[in-house]
């Protein structure tokens, strides 16, 4: 099984469902809303006039949100269907952006040797990559001297808890996979996927940090966040994009963010 071919088919099938979903709310985006989290905007800082590359960009709403904040953006994803939608949304909104279809490990060649001031990777990206050492080396090669990587991700600790209650350790933190999943739906709704198999790889926080350091980047900050994008456990309260444990309940990290600079 080639995990890339399997996952590409799965994500190509997800694209039209995601574009039509309330979860992504494309019409809201076109009306001016931004899916970027407040902590991302704060930790990345002013992007005006800066060249920003978004790896594993899906159909580009985060990418185009950075463009609205003034960045010169390029988005890259291995799903042809996603890139087609990203280009269409950019055109509809009149937002200048470049979108490229390529696997993340082939980014340097696909982008023609270009380098960037910011390489951004958003939520839910790393679980699709088997080799973080190669990923971090790819990122380092795409950064200009003085540029930085900014990563926002779901926290791997939360992934070891049982999905029903979020109170019991049910999964092995150190089991990197591959994990082959057969699931008829995507996370945005109940429409049946044409291609239902996916292959995922779990990565611990230490593994991510060590890969970034080994690639020659300097870690500037790692922040752990007590809220998440979706209702990961039934006990979480909140609304779209901001789900948390109830006040007074014990908390665990649900997301994290990392910023690392090139010398």
TrEMBL record:
Q: Which InterPro entries match?
A: Methyltransf_12 (IPR013217), SAM-dependent_MTases_sf (IPR029063)
Q: List residues traversing the bilayer.
A: none
**Domain Methyltransferase type as annotated: residue spans:** 53-149
State any single GO MF term. methyltransferase activity
Q: Name one GO biological process term.
A: methylation
**What keywords does the record list, in alphabetical order?**
Methyltransferase, Transferase
Under what name is this protein listed? Methyltransferase domain-containing protein
**Species whose genome carries this gene:** Nonomuraea phyllanthi
């Amino acid at each position: 099984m080639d995990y890339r071919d399997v996952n590409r088919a799965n994500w190509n099938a997800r694209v039209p469902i995601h574009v039509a979903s309330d979860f992504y709310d494309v019409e809201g985006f076109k009306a001016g809303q931004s899916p970027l989290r407040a902590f991302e905007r704060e930790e990345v800082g002013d992007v005006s006039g800066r060249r920003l590359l978004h790896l594993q960009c899906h159909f580009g709403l985060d990418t185009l949100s950075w463009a609205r904040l003034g960045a010169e953006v390029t988005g890259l994803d291995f799903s042809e269907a996603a890139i087609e939608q990203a280009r269409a949304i950019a055109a509809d909104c009149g937002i200048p952006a470049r979108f490229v279809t390529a696997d993340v490990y082939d980014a340097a060649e696909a982008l023609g040797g270009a380098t960037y001031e910011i390489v951004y990777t958003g939520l839910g990206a790393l679980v699709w990559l088997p080799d973080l050492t190669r990923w971090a080396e790819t990122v380092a090669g795409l950064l200009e001297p003085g540029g930085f990587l900014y990563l926002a991700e779901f926290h791997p600790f939360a992934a070891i808890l049982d999905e029903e209650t979020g109170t019991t350790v049910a999964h092995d933190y150190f089991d990197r996979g591959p994990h082959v999943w057969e699931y008829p739906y995507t996370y945005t709704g109940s429409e049946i996927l044409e291609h239902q198999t996916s292959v995922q790889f779990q990565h611990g926080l230490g593994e991510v940090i060590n890969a970034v350091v080994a690639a020659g980047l300097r870690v500037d900050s790692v922040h752990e966040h007590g809220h998440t994008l979706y209702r990961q456990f039934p006990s979480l309260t909140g609304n779209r994009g901001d789900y948390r444990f109830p006040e007074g309940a014990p908390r665990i990290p649900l997301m994290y963010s990392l910023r690392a600079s090139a010398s």
